[in-house]
């Protein structure tokens, strides 16, 4: 089978290569999946660069999230042959993957592979962060990198709960797109002063910030919180840590915390986890929540796919298909 691997960490285009490998043999509790679609997430790139929370065991394949079809069932036949599934694993940029049967989710009928392969990480992170934030209808949420796949999902989920959403962009043409999804306020940080606009338009600041960027923008978002506010950090797109203002934290009683989907999922009961899956997949199936696809590339064209991923101004995910 074909797989995309790296033998050392570094910039993806420098270290990734395609090679032939033996077909993996599943253990009794595992299913073997023919992978049909994988989306490229920021976490995939950071993993390849050695900057993610999980350290790669080299040589390693890339990718964490995918969709596919079961070609070999587990010993108990929990997931029968032919079942379309959604799953996460370390290293999905290959043609076949073996995954514990308990870790795969049957793909709801009516959801395409291109949507299914991005139905886990971003939608569940958006759902989980909104749930954990405790935000109520009428309160303000600020989302940095609002035009990202995650940002657009948060806008859709939050507005359905009556939460007011402000978000940052770097291009004016992105404003109409996000306003169409329900954003109440969109700030172009290349032209406008974030804190000034937020303080004027939200009656003194937002209650919660979801920050994916870090760096200077993260600091400005932190300063946009009202007294008693809370920043939830889940990404570092700028690759720069947030320069925290100690006086701001002290005198405005602000809180800063991290969010990682894996940790949050592990904290849930089976009932809470099932509710999360049912809610997210139900909204995707009914198109109450939409995810966008910018382009689809065959696995062999992973380099072209990465170049497309790195192109600014995208409004959808880059998919690697088989």
TrEMBL record:
- List the keywords (alphabetical): NADP, Oxidoreductase
Q: Which InterPro entries match?
A: ADH-like_C, ADH-like_N, ER, GroES-like_sf, NAD(P)-bd_dom_sf
| Domain (Enoyl reductase (ER)): residue spans on this chain | 10-320
For whether the record's keyword set contains Oxidoreductase, the answer is: yes
Any one GO molecular function term: NADPH binding
Pfam families the record matches? ADH_N, ADH_zinc_N
**Does the record bear Ion transport in its keywords?**
no
PANTHER family per the record?
Answer: QUINONE OXIDOREDUCTASE PIG3 (PTHR48106:SF18), QUINONE OXIDOREDUCTASE PIG3-RELATED (PTHR48106)
Q: What is this protein called?
A: Alcohol dehydrogenase
Name of the encoding gene: adhP
């Amino acid at each position: 089978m074909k797989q995309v691997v790296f033998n050392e960490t570094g910039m993806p285009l420098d270290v990734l290569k395609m090679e032939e490998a033996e077909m993996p043999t599943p253990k009794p509790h595992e299913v073997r999946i023919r992978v049909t679609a994988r989306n490229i997430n920021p976490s995939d790139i950071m993993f390849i660069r050695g900057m993610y929370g999980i350290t790669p065991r080299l040589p390693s394949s890339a990718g964490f999230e995918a969709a596919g079809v079961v070609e070999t069932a587990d010993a108990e036949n929990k997931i029968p042959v032919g079942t379309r599934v959604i799953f996460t694993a370390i290293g999905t940029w290959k043609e076949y993957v073996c995954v514990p049967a308990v870790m795969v989710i049957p793909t709801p009928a009516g959801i395409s592979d291109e949507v299914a392969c991005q139905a886990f990480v971003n939608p569940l992170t958006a759902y989980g962060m909104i749930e954990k934030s405790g935000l109520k209808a009428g309160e303000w949420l600020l989302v940095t990198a609002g035009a990202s796949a995650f940002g657009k999902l948060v806008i859709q989920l939050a507005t359905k709960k009556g939460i007011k959403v402000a978000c940052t962009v770097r291009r004016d043409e992105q404003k109409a797109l996000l306003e169409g999804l329900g954003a109440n306020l969109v700030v172009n940080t290349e032209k406008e002063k974030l804190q000034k606009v937020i303080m004027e338009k939200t009656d003194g600041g937002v209650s919660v910030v979801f920050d994916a960027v870090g760096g200077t923008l993260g600091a400005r978002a932190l300063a946009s919180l009202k007294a008693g506010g809370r920043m939830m950090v889940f990404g570092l797109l700028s690759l720069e840590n947030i320069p925290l203002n100690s006086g701001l934290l002290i005198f405005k009683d602000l809180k800063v915390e991290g969010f990682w989907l894996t940790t949050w999922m592990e904290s849930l009961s089976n009932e809470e986890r099932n509710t999360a899956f049912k809610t997210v997949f139900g909204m995707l199936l009914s198109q109450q929540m939409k995810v966008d696809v910018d382009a689809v590339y065959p696995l062999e064209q992973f380099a072209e796919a990465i170049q497309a991923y790195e192109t600014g101004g995208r409004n959808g995910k880059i998919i690697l298909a088989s």
